[in-house]
Write a structure and sequence with these properties.
The complex is a heterodimer. Chain A is mainly β. Helices cover about 0% and strands about 45% of the residues of chain A. In chain A, the strands form two sheets. In chain A, strands 2, 4, 5, 8, 9 and 10 form a six-stranded mixed sheet that branches. In chain A, strands 1-3-7-6 form a four-stranded antiparallel sheet, with no helix packed on it. The termini of chain A are far apart. Chain B is globular and about 45 Å long. Classes of the chains: A mainly beta, B mainly beta. The interface between A and B is medium-sized, with 25 and 24 residues.
Amino acid sequence: GAGVSQSPSNKVTEKGKDVELRCDPISGHTALYWYRQSLGQGLEFLIYFQGNSAPDKSGLPSDRFSAERTGGSVSTLTIQRTQQEDSAVYLCASSLGVPRGSPLHFGNGTRLTVT
Amino acid sequence: AQKVTQAQTEISVVEKEDVTLDCVYETRDTTYYLFWYKQPPSGELVFLIRRNSFDEQNEISGRYSWNFQKSTSSFNFTITASQVVDSAVYFCALSEVGNAGNMLTFGGGTRLMVKP
């Protein structure tokens, strides 16, 4: 079946502009995660959605970052007033909500470049 | 706090050599899960294996094998007779039951270069 789909694959934006990144999870996966991978660094957890529950936003680096998930499916990560340090690959993943330990399945990511 | 350490940032081998990628983790939980992911140059993270903390049996899948040792908090990954297609960044990851869902904490990754 179809995997996790992310768009756009690449985004170049000017400092100070807002950007929206989209993620379409695997059908039937109730859990959705956003991660950030900066150049030469590991993967940093940003936010987690499970079904219709309130999201876990503990990984968001600042209040310029927000995300929503509509209808328990598609998610949008929004970065307001982008800064150069926001340049990274933003990865979305989905998984079954249960059982525990279900593997995360990742999309190809959105490469964000802030100039 | 949970933590995953991959001390080898980069490894270079010649095709057909065996190579072991090290992973050491820290957790206070007794129930947890360990994973390995492969990230080829295309960028997508590919799930390779999952182990739970109660199953220390080693696993072999073709040229890949994994050695899980709770006594040393390690979950090492060996590729036998490496091939150029194995060139990628490999990530070890940990999921604790108390996490947000199945959220993973990743190690810094090991870049493996297999030369012909």
